[in-house]
């Protein structure tokens, strides 16, 4: 069975761990009440989901600006190691609500760590879907903000929405995790087919890893 490697990115508190628990239908990651105490280390799990093998790489607050870069380098290295030889999908998590500077910095840092090409392998996934207007779709929501709409277009208009708190159980229709996650995996298949089944450029990952290790050596050597 082939493996689909998914790197999940987003600021702390957006619901990365809760989403994993929703997708795998069990508590695979701890969920914290405080937005300041979520995942601080890169973690991964590999499990079967609907007949496919999914390797889920849950990033730490790689995308939280309050963390020092030197603190994050070991976690960036681990993330790259976990998704080796390369991720098929970057899943960018954003909350339904205002597209603030913090959310924009998540995308900027993704490009910084992995290059702009990563967006060719990216899907936007919004959490807190219950905050959508009664008649709104996530596509309509995203189109109302110029910066967000540009990001959506750059990601090939690939977007979905979940609500880990309210859309579970036997709920059906557009506003249900069951429907949205089914559509998400269809989008993943379509994107992978469009990319010729390729994963994200392994050469760039190796270069990034080498650069981080060299910089880390210089830092510890006192250069």
Automatic annotation (TrEMBL):
Q: Write out the entry's keywords from A to Z.
A: GTP-binding, Nucleotide-binding
- MF annotations from Gene Ontology: GTP binding
Concerning Pfam families, the annotation shows: AIG1
Q: Where is the AIG1-type G domain?
A: 1-209
Which PROSITE patterns does this entry report, sorted A to Z? G_AIG1
Spell out the InterPro entries in the cross-references: G_AIG1, GIMA/IAN/Toc, P-loop_NTPase
Out of the domains of life, which is the source? Eukaryota
KW Nucleotide-binding (keyword) present: yes
What family does the Swiss-Prot or TrEMBL record give for this protein? Belongs to the TRAFAC class TrmE-Era-EngA-EngB-Septin-like GTPase superfamily. AIG1/Toc34/Toc159-like paraseptin GTPase family. IAN subfamily.
UniProt name for this protein: AIG1-type G domain-containing protein
Q: Which species?
A: Mugilogobius chulae (yellowstripe goby)
